[in-house]
């Protein structure tokens, strides 16, 4: 099962301005540039993201397969940000996520405001310039806490995908004071050194695209009760969806019924059509969801998208909160070892559906 938590607020904090706010910018930015190389002074930025954890937790608890609490051994939580642009970055660098300990206000500023907006979180202040200061400038990142998380990059996509399961589990258990949000930055050692790491720009929550930042919470929910079904192991098969709708509400928990049949069934004498014979896909079968317009993968194949099975055939449950509303999506199926060991097959179900508000 996949459940997506979108941020309720986000902003970029810039070290070279103690009070500028960029809360309404459609871009979040990580930078590290040297201003004076000889003096080894530099300017950097950090990204702040806040989440309505109470509402998300209550919503997940209504899903029958949810494992009661977000135990990091039973659930996996990944924070994801999608790149708009990357400039002058080195071939190798590391980003780090920390939790924040102090309440803060997103603000209404943008980078290009003139005069600059100073109401909202900034490098030195949590809400308004000259008002409440961070305990530690730059978002009060809890650098001494054990739930810091990193992602290393070396000749690869600059999209952020950091495992924050430990922090989220602590938030759920209410044992951590660091539940005010997540701070993303170059590591402390990189911020302090004399090197330049360029600029990384990501879509913010104010983007008008499908690439809003998010925390993707995953847990195992597949179950197998195959009854008398057998795996369909002929060479050519068709995979399709049964009785599925075209539109789904954005807060709906839907069940997709996945069926398969032989494209060229053997001719036999009988009282029922061979096309009505029920089969199942192998236990190692998974679903993926793509944006139908951009062909971008929104939900990828992994251990948490495994198909379940009953005596009627395969299925999976999906919470529509994981998808941006008012867009079209399509479903792909992957089956492993159906006919030969090691064989991997991909099937396009040719089913387009829409998520509506």
Give the SSE string.
EEEEHEEEEEHEHEEEEEEEEEEE
CA(first)-CA(last) distance: 21 Å
How large, in whole angstroms, is the Cα Rg?
24 Å
Mean pLDDT, rounded to whole units? 88
Number of strands: 21
Question: Could you please describe the fold and organization of this structure?
Answer:
The chain has 357 residues and is mainly β. It folds into two domains: 2-219, no CATH class; 237-356, Macroglobulin (MG2) domain (Immunoglobulin-like), CATH 2.60.40.1930. It has three helices and 21 strands. It has helices spanning 53-61, 165-173, 188-192; strands at residues 2-5, 9-14, 27-36, 41-50, 75-81, 83-87, 92-99, 149-154, 160-163, 182-186, 198-203, 214-219, 237-242, 247-249, 253-262, 285-291, 297-299, 308-310, 313-319, 327-336, 344-356. Strand 18 (308-310) and strand 19 (313-319) form a beta hairpin. The protein is elongated. The two termini are 21 Å apart. The mean pLDDT is 88.
Keywords:
mainly beta; single chain; elongated; Immunoglobulin-like
Provide a brief overview of the structure.
With 357 residues, the protein is mainly beta. The chain has three helices and 21 strands.
């Amino acid at each position: 099962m996949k459940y997506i938590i979108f941020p309720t607020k986000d902003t970029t904090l810039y070290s070279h301005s103690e009070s500028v706010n960029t809360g309404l910018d459609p871009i979040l930015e990580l930078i590290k540039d040297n201003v004076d190389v000889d003096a080894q002074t530099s300017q950097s930025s950090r990204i702040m993201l806040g989440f309505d954890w109470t509402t998300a937790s209550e919503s997940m608890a209504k899903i029958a397969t949810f494992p009661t609490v977000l135990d990091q051994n039973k659930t996996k939580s990944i924070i994801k940000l999608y790149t708009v642009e990357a400039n002058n970055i080195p071939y190798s660098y590391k980003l780090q996520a920390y939790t924040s300990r102090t309440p803060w206000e997103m603000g209404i500023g943008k980078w290009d405001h003139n005069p600059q907006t100073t109401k909202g979180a900034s490098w030195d202040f949590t809400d308004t310039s000259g008002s409440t200061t961070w305990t530690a400038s730059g978002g009060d990142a809890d650098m001494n806490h054990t739930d810091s998380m990193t992602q290393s990059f070396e000749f690869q996509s600059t999209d952020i995908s950091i495992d924050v399961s430990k922090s989220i589990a602590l938030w759920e258990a209410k044992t951590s004071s660091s539940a005010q949000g997540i701070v993303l930055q170059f590591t402390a050692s990189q911020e302090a050194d004399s090197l330049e790491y360029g600029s990384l720009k990501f879509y913010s929550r104010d983007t008008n695209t499908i690439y809003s930042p998010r925390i993707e919470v995953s847990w195992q929910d597949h179950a197998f009760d195959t009854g008398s079904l057998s795996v369909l192991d002929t060479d050519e098969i068709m995979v399709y969806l049964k009785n599925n709708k075209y539109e789904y509400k954005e807060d709906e928990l839907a069940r997709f019924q996945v069926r398969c049949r032989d494209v060229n069934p053997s001719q036999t004498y009988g009282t029922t059509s061979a096309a009505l014979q029920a089969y199942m896909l192998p236990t190692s079968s998974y679903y993926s969801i793509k944006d139908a317009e951009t062909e971008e993968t929104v939900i990828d194949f992994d251990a948490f998208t495994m198909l379940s099975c009953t005596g009627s055939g395969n299925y999976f449950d999906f919470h529509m909160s994981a998808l941006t509303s008012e867009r079209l999506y399509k479903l792909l199926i992957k089956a492993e070892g159906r006919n030969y060991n090691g064989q991997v097959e991909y099937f396009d179900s040719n089913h387009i559906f829409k998520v509506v508000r």
